Amino acid sequence: MKDLLTGLLGAPEGVVLYQLLFATQFTIYLSAIAFAGGGTVGALVTLLRIAPARSARSLATAYIWFFQSAPLLMLLFLFGLGVPRLLGVNVNVWLAASAALTLYTSAYLAEVWRSAVQSIPTGQWEGAEALGLRFWQTLRLVVLPQAVRVSLAPTVGFLVQIIKGTSLAYIIGFSDLMSVGKRWANAPVEGTEPFIIYPLMALIYFALCFPLSRLSLGLEKRLGTVRKTPPIAA
Amino acid sequence: MDLRFFEIYRRSDYLLLLLEGAALSAALTITAALTGMALALALSGARYARLSVLRHVAAAYVEFIRNTPLIVQLFFVAFGLPTLLGYQWPFWAHALLALTLNFSAYFSEILRSGYATVGTGQTEAAAALGLKPRQTFFKIVLPQAVAKTYPSLVSQFIFLFLTTGVIAEIGVNDLTQAGKFIDSRTFRSFEVFFTLTLIYILMSLSFKGGLAVLQRRLFRWQVAR
Amino acid sequence: MIDIQNVRKSFGDLEVLKGIDLTVERGEVVTVIGGSGSGKSTLLTCINGLEPINGGKITIDGTEVHARSTDLNKLRTKVGIVFQQFNAFPHLTVMENVTLAPRKVLGMGRAEAEAIAEKQLRHVGLADKLSTYPSRLSGGQQQRMAIARALAMSPGYMLFDEVTSALDPQLVGEVLETLKMLAEEGMTMILVTHEMSFARDVSDRVAFFHKGVMAEIGAPDQLFGAPRHPETQAFLSKVR
């Protein structure tokens, strides 16, 4: 692959492109970890948020509120610099980046999934209750299957947000597409000027994000969406 | 583990630095929101242009911005464009341009969804009174679309504000940069960035409050309902 | 004079007007009745050029509505239209609703436009609602405001498209009163309506539309008292 690209484009262009594409895998891994971690934590928070116990609901509400209000960049600083220095331990940069992105993701997904569950008419709950189903049975058998449909589009849409979010992890020393590209852009090598490297990186990010955006849009058209999805940006 | 917030809070020079950073963050975000909104207006309008090239360019621009990270856009604007075109601006100007370009894409999509909510009855009535399409758009459609999508515009604005910390990466002395400076002097990273997080949250809440007041001012006809 | 000659109009495959001929003289009040889908409302939107036509021609005071050279915006200032849905502009006060077109289309100054608006609003009984927003008005008041909004352009002709159909029954009366007042003042009007006794009361002529054709037209006493066309008879016996 490296030889092929160097052969096609020559050095340094071929080498740079190879290194960018190689580093892209870490962007993908980190995104996958954040999505899996955030999905798991998010599911737990969603359950707390709709649980019958009031204290559980308040706790989940506070959690969602805080991690939706906190800037991702601050979470990265807190886990990449703050926690290690506070505890006086070394924290692996993968762990720090994953933790920050997981919390960030979990809050968003919990919010989306909560709205999805609560968008199911109360008549469904009452109907199930009338049949003698318990809370958790109703949730699992009646409500969730309907809620999953409408939450699919915003959930996939948020993947785009996660991928874009991973671009900030280089700030705490994570090595990915962003950090490798930035290094090349700063290097005094002809053919790696910032006006070449950054558009190239943007294209790679676009290639990862755009299909997911389209998929999300397609799902929204087919399955519908949660009426009030929180905004997505940057 | 010992938390020593006082190391930051007792130093008036640090507090002043944070205050100045917060002020610059707020000023740049608000300005970028206004210029971004103006650009968004043009972009959303271009989606209805008679010239199909214009429609496609606007759509491609919006998709491209929305599907790439802000920081890459920022670095391109701050380092790529100046080397390519041979100009140099102050850091804050690069930041303002990048944020404007970024905000505009998100706002234009919201505006577009707003236009769709204004019924054909409204445009038909305006046409029947002899108003030209331009007048109908600015006098009838736009005010109603902005009013209808105001809550979305506000939450998008807050959301974008929370991402502006990246401008510290090109050397702008914003709130995040102030935090990074204090961190480099004190090594109390947890305390510093936790404080910063709280300031960002507090500022978001203030924006939300201010924009709610503005909403009641601007859209009295809607609240009256 | 509004002169309608052999006008045809289709939406896709559906022909809704199949060659309509009608001449309305100045000062005349013509009411159009007929079942839903008879094409009567479409005719009104064609008359002021909101809808293009597929055949025939419509001329207003000698200007052909659908000719390429016609400035529709200018023409529309001569022909006011009021819709079934009031289409009040919700973000503007009653006064602003009425002054918008005189200021933006006719280029009037604010004071002049407001004087005219106030006169028209007083005329329709809304003098005390000038700075109110439409959401605070009843349906009947909104519709009267829409009438004042059209009148503020000093049109030579007024078109009314089922203006009472979206109103609660108890509000219909006030709007009909306003229309009747306009008719008595000599305004040239074409009204599409379902209010038969009102039509009989104010009209100079009544036209009955059926499936895109003007089946019958005549003086109100003749059309309501002794309808000639079997479809007119059937329609009238149903609505009574």
From TrEMBL, chain A:
GO terms for molecular function: transmembrane transporter activity. Its main location: membrane. Residues 24-216 form the ABC transmembrane type-1 domain. It holds the Pfam family BPD_transp_1. The chain crosses the membrane at residues 26-48, 60-81, 93-110, 156-175, 195-213. InterPro entries: AA_ABC_transptr_permease_3TM, ArtM/GltK/GlnP/TcyL/YhdX-like, MetI-like, MetI-like_sf. SUPFAM superfamilies: MetI-like. Belongs to the binding-protein-dependent transport system permease family. HisMQ subfamily. This is Amino acid ABC transporter permease.
UniProtKB/TrEMBL annotation, chain B:
Belongs to the binding-protein-dependent transport system permease family. HisMQ subfamily. The chain crosses the membrane at residues 14-43, 64-85, 91-108, 153-172, 192-214. GO terms for cellular component: ATP-binding cassette (ABC) transporter complex. Coiled coil: none annotated. It is a multi-pass membrane protein. It is found in: Cell inner membrane; Cell membrane. Signal peptide: none annotated. Residues 18-211 form the ABC transmembrane type-1 domain. Keywords: Cell membrane, Membrane, Transmembrane, Transmembrane helix, Transport. InterPro entries: AA_ABC_transptr_permease_3TM, ArtM/GltK/GlnP/TcyL/YhdX-like, MetI-like, MetI-like_sf. GO terms for molecular function: transmembrane transporter activity. One of its GO terms (biological process) is amino acid transport. This is Amino acid ABC transporter permease. Pfam families: BPD_transp_1. It comes from Meridianimarinicoccus roseus.
From TrEMBL, chain C:
Its main location: membrane. It comes from Meridianimarinicoccus roseus. It is found in: Cell membrane. This is Glutamine ABC transporter ATP-binding protein. The keyword NADP does not apply. GO terms for cellular component: plasma membrane. It is a peripheral membrane protein. Belongs to the ABC transporter superfamily. InterPro entries: AAA+_ATPase, ABC_ATPase_HisP-typ, ABC_transporter-like_ATP-bd, ABC_transporter-like_CS, MetN_ABC_transporter-like, P-loop_NTPase.
